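Now for a sample.
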Amino acid sequence: MASIILGSSEYAAAGMSNGTASQADALDAAASHVGIAESAPALAVAGESVLNDVHNLVIPPIPCSFPWRNHPDYKQLTEMSDAWVLSHFTNMPGADGRPSSFAAENMIKSAFHMQATLPFADGMSERMPPIIKMMDWYFMIDNILDDPSEMGADPDRADRVVDSVLTVFRDTYTHPSPNPSPLVRILTDTAAEWWAEMCAGMPPKQKARLSKAFCDYLEANRLQVPYRNSRHLPNVETYFKVRADSIGWWPCAVLIEHCQGFELDDEALSHPLLMKLQENTVQHIFLVNDITSFKKEYMQGDFCNIVSILYFRKLYDPKRDAASPTPTLQGALLEALQMIKDKDDECVRLMAEIKEDKQLMKKRGMPEYLEGLGLWMSGTIYWHLVSGRYGICATSDLHATPPDMLAHHHLHIQANKDAAHIVPSGVMMAFN
């Protein structure tokens, strides 16, 4: 099967309404597509069962073999980040002029800047401010393009956002942005601000790679919107290809070099071992994001996630033995967790191979780059566990209040007790 089409039972379970077809028509279409003969009431019951499974999901410890650490200037960079967010996004409008679901105070509570201070822990202090701004901006546009209540289910509006922001990275931006939408203008003008700061003095080849990575990120997110809008779920192979760009990590990989003042040469960047390591690193990162964000995304009606894809493809597989146990969301999450472990194991193996290659290790910046890849993996897990963005909050003293799940009720999502041991007892605020 190339793709799965979800019917209204799944959307009803998520508290979402279907604006493209009646519930009965959508259920019939889904049953026809996947080759099942369940009635609409039966599918509705199944949808309620799925919602119950969502409530009871448990996230076991997430495999990662690399230690974490935070930037020594974390407190100062936090203050800078909060001030920039308040000055630029306090009056951020939502789609269609509605109140934004991503107000400045929510950005601050979610500590998005931490996603810069953790993986870029050795970044030069003077090069960190634009990276901090970029990370705050990244989560802003990510939310707008993902969230069905913003633009995540509207290809036309998403296109206008992407096309406007692309002018910044293609060096065709004019100040201020002429876009008539206040939302798009703010996104474009703030991108232009940190882009100009970041690229000052950057080597031309490095800037070209960074520009391409940002453009690929925006185009991949544009591609995900039709999947979300049509309720099609891609197969795992297609999803991996799109997700590797839509997670937005490739620009950050370039910044591992930039923040420490070195540039990998073409020979190093094209080395098969390093390319394979980068591939496994980005897959580890987006799979971690997928399992930790699944509950929130499901409640928003967003199924473009590895847990959903694994679950629904098995549930609707016409070749599935009716006598076999019914697939579960917990089983899909554990399958995704095994994928993460496989990626972690492969990264450990590849790093060991690279370190044995004396010629490759002589390349300027290679040891620092390898360390940066490991910091990205560990830092991503740490942030997902302590940030309030996905409601996990594995610590009790940092952003303990779960976020608004945009559902009819709030879900108090918590990691199980076994997960807590991977969060060190000294939380980030120890830098205060």
User: Anything to note?
Assistant: Residues 57-431 form a domain with the Farnesyl Diphosphate Synthase fold (CATH 1.10.600.10). The chain has one domain: 57-431. Residues 15-46, 394-432 have pLDDT under 50 and may be disordered. DSSP finds 18 helices and two strands in the chain.
